[in-house]
């Protein structure tokens, strides 16, 4: 299949080179008379491909190790006997290889004849016709007829018997259509094992095996009664991508036909930032295929990015602007001009009545950098205030504060490739197998190679123990005690003399280190002293600290389980201290790496979405920084920091904040203390929601501006490794405009004179005003593919590894990490601690994934509770339970599991029917106001169904979503 739109950065083309690339000393050889030099360890097959000689193959693929089973890739080597498989034969100096001869042609045709003899010859009606490697290889070897008959009683015989209406025997394997996204047709399986090996080597799930013998050998998804839906398969699509026939095939291809063109773009789900080929027929998207040259995902994907894109064409999407005078009124569809004029009049009136600081914006971590930049510019250059905030602060602002204070920059230190060189990985407060599955697959591959793992988490996540991996240490700490555990690890490292003194003297502030040592070696920080408080056995904690300090390259990966605490910033500082203590900064395989939750959390921070910082993390109080933007924008920028989201809501209840433009966020479902959020929104006079769907926040909106999906726009996302990736328009916006155009239309309706015609111009403005982006433009991204900031005169090709020769701040700064218990405490009324998280098949508030077939795996939020706690409360598996806290209550079904310890319960927040955040409190991080989602004192008790609040909420939501029929 030809790619009509392939960016210039593609290294050559998208061919499968057969075996992985190698690094090593140069080796020269001759293939079919062509001389070539390749790295030592390269296979003959890959070397041949490098010079344009395609050796036929079926079992080989360049994202897996050579297997050598199909025998189609045989070659002749001068001076050697026999015909070795080119995929498993490494090159040697002076080797002379022949890939074509009469003998080889006969052998390959014979092999292919055997394959075809056990395969249905229905190519004309097969869904893989035109995109089938078996078909291509039959042509490549010149196979024109088959001398053999199909084996009697085998799968092929049964296949034809079924077609003719006869009764097949017991060996017949029916087609498995259980998975919503792909089908499995065993009659077309050639037992090449590529799917099995992809599941093992690429994904690391080990869900597939080969069962049966001889002609009856076929792929199995588990036990005899398992289907692809009920098995351990995680629907990442690696097996589908690996399959050379129509055995494993996307249902979308079966229905729509083989795609004919493709566009390279970036996934809009998590912070991994996977690159995909969006493959189309005309303007109809047929499938998303992970792009092999994507530097974040290296050709892999997860169920969300690979399959869950259908929301973009869901019937629930709103494609026309809507307005209403009161939130109790039904919506009225209008044209864009009327909606924008209505909005501008409302906002002007509010500012005239209540002052210029009475309105603000919320930027999106799902939208592009360019769109986010314009929204914060809207408030600063048009509203003339700094009232801008983002969900990125609600989840990862402690990262910015903690790493900024210790290292001088507000982002992770490594690229994802770095994990291949780590020796010890510590995961704290993150669940990568569910939240960042493509990175988790790369991590699991390194663990299978021998790296050690430490997991610090109240819950036993899949990364603690799953197929072929097991953590050396799982520290199941009590929620809210992160700081105590991290400081105790530092205590062990310091008191046992395991720190790297040379690194600290050279790279860090020695006086600050001395002060820190005096603090951390205090016996009150010893593992034994905190054991009762944290629930972590002292011996385990000591062993984990020793492993991290002495096990070689040590890398720390953390997530929202670190940041969403009242001491989130303190924990990030403690993690930074650990890395400096052990010298694990500034080289491959080490570092401190936040796993960002949404696709552009990093970018929304970079673009100045915080009320106190302009783009590039520079404080608004600094006149020299304001001058840069004042000169670029031709306005005076308010030096006074604006309001964060909680402050906006507080001010709304008080009557001083009255207007909000909310792009691509659903604060009513995602932010803490739902009652307070609802009260604040209800008190405003103009709430503008700019989104794809009528979300929960839109219940309180006066204006709805339809948004565009990632498939309908150009721009860039910045992932968790600081990688700036291109987002390319796959299809025209269904609402008529890309999101940046909508923001520009609103700004101009308010009197601005913005004249952008393409997002590349916005990026040029970002580069001109933001030092870390100074070298970034669309032309260089097209050539390089992607780049990691800082990208400027000092680092024209970007910066994969931070702090190599020195910290951005000059010297690394050790800081005291005093543990202060959260004000949220358990007691007789609320004896359990609730913590929250995500699940693999859903994303954030579920607005996108709930509108796809991913609901098959997770149709509702469930409360995980330990069997002991459940028994005490008379709760059984699947029972409705009431989950109550000091803030509110909700109901959901119970799932009994020992993944959580006694005294701890856990749930997700993907479904608005649950509204899990109605029970979370308004406690927040001391430095950044990041909400404390992960520690809520609760009680669980049996329930008969939804609470009164849930019923009232559902009634109000239904009332607020009425849309008047369009006028005739």
From TrEMBL:
Record bears the keyword Iron-sulfur: yes
Region (Disordered): 1-21
Keyword entries, A-Z: 2Fe-2S, 4Fe-4S, Iron, Iron-sulfur, Metal-binding, Oxidoreductase, Repeat
Gene Ontology MF, one: 2 iron, 2 sulfur cluster binding
The 4Fe-4S His(Cys)3-ligated-type domain, residue ranges: 103-142
4Fe-4S ferredoxin-type domain residues: 180-211, 224-253
Recorded GO CC terms: membrane; oxidoreductase complex
Residues in 4Fe-4S Mo/W bis-MGD-type domain copies: 260-316
GO biological process, one term: respiratory electron transport chain
Domain of life, per lineage: Bacteria
UniProt cross-references to Pfam families, sorted A to Z: Fer2_4 (PF13510), Fer4_7 (PF12838), Molybdop_Fe4S4 (PF04879), Molybdopterin (PF00384), Molydop_binding (PF01568), NADH-G_4Fe-4S_3 (PF10588)
Domain 2Fe-2S ferredoxin-type: 25-103
Family designation: In the C-terminal section; belongs to the prokaryotic molybdopterin-containing oxidoreductase family.
UniProt protein name: Formate dehydrogenase subunit alpha
Source organism per UniProt: Paracoccus caeni
Lineage: Bacteria, Pseudomonadati, Pseudomonadota, Alphaproteobacteria, Rhodobacterales
């Amino acid at each position: 299949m030809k790619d009509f739109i392939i960016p210039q950065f593609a290294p050559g083309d998208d061919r499968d080179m057969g075996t992985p690339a190698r690094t090593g000393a140069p080796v020269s050889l001759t293939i079919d008379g062509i001389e070539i030099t390749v790295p030592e360890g390269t296979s003959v097959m890959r070397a041949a491909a490098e010079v344009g000689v395609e050796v036929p193959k079926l079992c080989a693929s360049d994202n897996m190790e050579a297997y050598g089973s199909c025998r189609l890739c045989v070659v002749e080597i001068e001076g050697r006997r026999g015909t070795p498989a080119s995929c498993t034969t490494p090159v040697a100096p002076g080797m002379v290889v022949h890939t074509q001869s009469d003998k080889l042609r006969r052998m390959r045709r014979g092999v292919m004849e055997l394959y075809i003899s056990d395969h249905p010859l229905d190519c004309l009606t097969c869904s893989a016709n035109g995109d089938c490697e078996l078909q291509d290889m039959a042509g490549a070897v010149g196979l024109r007829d088959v001398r053999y008959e199909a084996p009697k009683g085998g799968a092929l015989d049964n296949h034809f018997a079924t077609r003719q209406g006869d009764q097949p025997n017991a060996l017949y394997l029916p087609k498995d259509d259980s998975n919503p996204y792909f089908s499995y047709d065993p009659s077309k399986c050639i037992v090449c094992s590529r799917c099995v090996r992809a599941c093992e080597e690429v994904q690391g799930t080990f869900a597939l095996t080969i069962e049966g013998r001889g002609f009856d050998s076929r792929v199995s998804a588990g036990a005899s009664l398992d289907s692809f839906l009920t098995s351990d398969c995680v629907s990442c699509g690696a097996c589908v991508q690996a399959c050379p026939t129509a055995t494993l095939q996307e249902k979308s291809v079966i229905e729509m036909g083989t795609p004919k063109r493709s566009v390279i773009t970036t996934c809009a789900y998590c912070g991994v930032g996977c690159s995909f080929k969006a493959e189309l027929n005309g303007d109809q998207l047929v499938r998303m295929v992970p792009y092999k040259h994507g530097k974040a995902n290296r050709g892999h994907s997860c169920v969300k990015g690979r399959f869950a894109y259908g929301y973009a064409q869901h019937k629930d999407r709103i494609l026309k602007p809507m307005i209403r005078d009161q939130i109790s009124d039904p919506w009225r569809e209008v044209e864009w001009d009327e909606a924008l004029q209505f909005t501008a009049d409302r906002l002007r009136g509010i500012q005239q009545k209540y002052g210029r600081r009475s309105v603000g914006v919320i930027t999106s971590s799902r939208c592009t950098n360019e769109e986010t930049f314009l929204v914060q510019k809207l408030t600063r250059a048009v509203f003339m205030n700094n009232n801008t905030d983002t969900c990125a602060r609600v989840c990862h602002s402690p990262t910015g504060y903690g790493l900024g204070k210790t290292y001088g920059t507000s982002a992770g230190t490594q690229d994802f490739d770095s994990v291949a060189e780590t020796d010890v990985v510590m995961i704290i407060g993150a669940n990568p197998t569910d939240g960042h599955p493509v990175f988790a697959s790369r991590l699991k591959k390194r663990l299978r190679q021998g790296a050690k793992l430490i997991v610090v988490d109240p819950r036993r996540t899949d990364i603690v123990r799953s197929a072929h991996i097991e953590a050396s240490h799982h520290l199941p700490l009590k929620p809210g005690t992160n700081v105590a555990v991290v400081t105790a690890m530092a205590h062990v490292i310091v008191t046992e003399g395991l720190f790297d003194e040379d690194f600290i003297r050279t790279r860090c502030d020695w006086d600050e280190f001395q002060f820190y040592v005096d603090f951390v070696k205090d016996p009150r920080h010893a593992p034994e002293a905190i054991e009762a408080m944290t629930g972590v056995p002292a011996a385990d904690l000591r062993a984990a600290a020793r492993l991290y300090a002495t096990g070689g390259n040590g890398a720390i990966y953390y997530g929202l389980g670190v940041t969403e605490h009242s001491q989130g910033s303190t924990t990030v500082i403690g993690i930074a201290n650990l890395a400096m203590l052990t010298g694990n900064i500034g080289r491959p395989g080490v570092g401190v790496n936040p796993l960002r939750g949404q696709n552009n959390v990093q970018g929304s921070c970079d673009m100045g979405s915080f009320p106190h910082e302009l783009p590039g993390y520079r404080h608004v109080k600094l006149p020299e920084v304001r001058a840069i933007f004042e000169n670029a924008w031709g306005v005076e920028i308010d030096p006074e920091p604006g309001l964060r989201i909680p402050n906006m809501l507080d001010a709304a209840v008080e009557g001083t904040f009255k207007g909000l433009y909310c792009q691509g966020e659903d604060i009513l479902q995602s932010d803490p203390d739902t009652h307070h959020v609802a009260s604040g929104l209800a008190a405003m006079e103009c709430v503008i929601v700019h989104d794809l769907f009528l979300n929960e926040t839109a219940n309180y909106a006066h204006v709805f501006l339809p948004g565009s999906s990632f498939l309908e726009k150009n721009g860039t996302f910045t992932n968790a490794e600081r990688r700036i990736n291109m987002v390319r328009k796959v299809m025209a916006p269904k609402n008529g405009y890309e999101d940046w155009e909508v923001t520009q239309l609103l700004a101009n309706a308010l009197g601005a004179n913005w004249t952008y015609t393409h997002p590349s111009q916005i990026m040029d403005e970002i580069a001109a005003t933001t030092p870390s982006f100074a070298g970034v433009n669309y032309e260089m991204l097209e050539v390089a593919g992607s780049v990691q900031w800082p990208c400027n005169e000092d680092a024209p090709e970007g910066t994969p590894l931070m702090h190599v020769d020195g910290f951005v701040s000059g010297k690394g700064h050790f800081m005291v990490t005093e543990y202060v218990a959260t004000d949220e405490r358990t007691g007789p009324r609320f004896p359990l601690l609730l913590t929250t998280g995500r699940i693999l098949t859903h994303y954030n508030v579920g607005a996108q994934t709930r509108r796809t077939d991913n609901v098959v795996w997770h149709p509702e939020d469930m409360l995980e509770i330990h069997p002991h706690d459940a028994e005490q409360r008379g709760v059984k598996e699947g029972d409705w339970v009431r989950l109550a806290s000091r803030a509110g209550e909700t109901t959901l079904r119970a799932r009994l599991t020992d993944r959580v310890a006694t005294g701890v319960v856990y749930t997700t927040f993907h479904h608005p029917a649950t509204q899990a955040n109605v029970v979370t409190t308004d406690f927040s991080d001391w430095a950044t106001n990041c909400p404390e989602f992960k520690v809520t004192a609760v009680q669980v008790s049996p329930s008969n169904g939804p609470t009164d609040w849930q019923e009232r909420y559902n009634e109000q939501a239904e009332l607020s979503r009425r849309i008047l029929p369009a006028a005739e």
